[in-house]
Write a structure and sequence with these properties.
Elements: E1 4-15, E2 18-30, E3 35-39, H1 46-54, E4 61-64, E5 67-70, E6 73-74, H2 80-86, E7 91-94, H3 98-101, H4 108-119, H5 125-137, H6 143-146, H7 156-168, E8 174-178, H8 186-203, E9 206-211, H9 214-220, E10 223-228, E11 231-237, H10 238-243, H11 248-255, H12 269-274
Parallel strand pairs: 3-9, 3-10, 7-8, 8-9
Antiparallel strand pairs: 1-2, 1-4, 1-5, 5-6, 10-11
Helix pairs in contact: 4-5, 4-7, 5-7, 7-8
GO molecular function: ATP binding; ATP hydrolysis activity
Main location: membrane
Subcellular location: Cell inner membrane
């Protein structure tokens, strides 16, 4: 049995111009210990799919699926109370913007502690000790001092590490990382990716990496799903995808990589679309 199995997922939003379909019949399958990359340009529905899985989309969204199971548990049938027992504990998510995801009015230690209080039996000093342990595990310097820092007193990379610590606090079986290196400089990006892969390998959890960066895909993924305009274009293991892409859109993405430049100008995805490639 797969860790996460989603079949025929559709998401529509009510807008002033009428219904907008953000996802159109997409399937996702993730096994324990596997790294699945979901790749595609902005607007392809990558984040929407995972937010739908987490139950975090607004009421304006209509979500349907033939199947949406986590370890055999039907996520579609859970009440809000039942969902809270799973989301944040067994399934966690790292969001794109760490500064926007952390509450500026509370210390990072307090916010980490709230996660532990919600999903574990730890109390008092046990919570603080575990918070410092988590901050240490994700490489935050001087965790004993930083535990009392507010988000604005920390760098973007440190805030992202806090978000990772929060996501792994309860040893999730599935971790979703939504563009985890957005807005970070190249050196910090590498550190964050290495950290995520190490945590995944050490714990054996499933990891879904949402990205538009094919370099991240090549470095971290076992299997890849390529999306475009809310649909799955291609799914393959990472080696097959790079060596022998089948779908024209996948070929367009790979052709737009700087290392694949053959002329004065890199081709764009629009070039392929205008030529009738997909």
């Amino acid at each position: 049995m797969s860790l996460l199995e989603i079949r025929n997922l559709r998401v529509e939003f009510d807008t002033a111009k009428g219904p907008f379909r953000a996802l159109d019949g997409v399937d996702y399958l993730v096994d324990a210990g596997e790294v699945l990359a979901i790749v595609g340009e902005s607007g392809s529905g990558k984040s929407v799919a995972m937010l739908a899985t987490m139950g975090l989309l607004p009421d304006t969204a209509t979500i349907t699926a033939d199947k949406m199971d986590f370890e055999g548990l039907d996520l579609r049938s859970l009440s809000a109370k039942e969902r809270r027992k799973v989301i944040g504990k067994d399934v966690s998510m790292i969001f794109q913007e760490p500064i926007a995801s952390l509450n500026p009015c509370f210390t990072v230690g307090f916010q980490l502690g709230e996660t532990l209080k919600a999903h574990t039996d730890l109390k008092g000093k046990q919570v603080k000790d575990r918070v410092i342990e988590l901050m240490t595990s994700v490489g935050i310097p001087d965790p004993g001092g930083r535990v009392n820092a507010f988000p604005h007193q920390m760098s973007g990379g440190q805030c992202q590490r806090v978000m990772i610590a929060m996501a792994i606090a309860c040893a999730p079986k599935l971790l979703i990382a939504d563009e985890p290196t957005t807005a970070l400089d190249v050196t910090i990006q590498k550190q964050i990716l290495d950290l995520l892969v190490k945590l995944q390998q050490d714990s054996g959890m499933g990891l879904i990496m949402i990205t538009h960066d094919m370099g991240v895909v090549a470095e971290t993924a076992d299997r890849v799903i390529v999306q475009y305009k809310g649909r799955k274009m291609e799914e393959a293991d990472v080696l097959s995808l790079f060596e022998n892409p089948k779908n024209p859109y996948t070929k367009a993405l790979l052709s737009a990589l700087p290392e694949n430049a053959t002329g004065d100008r890199l081709p764009t995805v629009s070039d392929f679309a205008e030529a009738g490639g997909f």
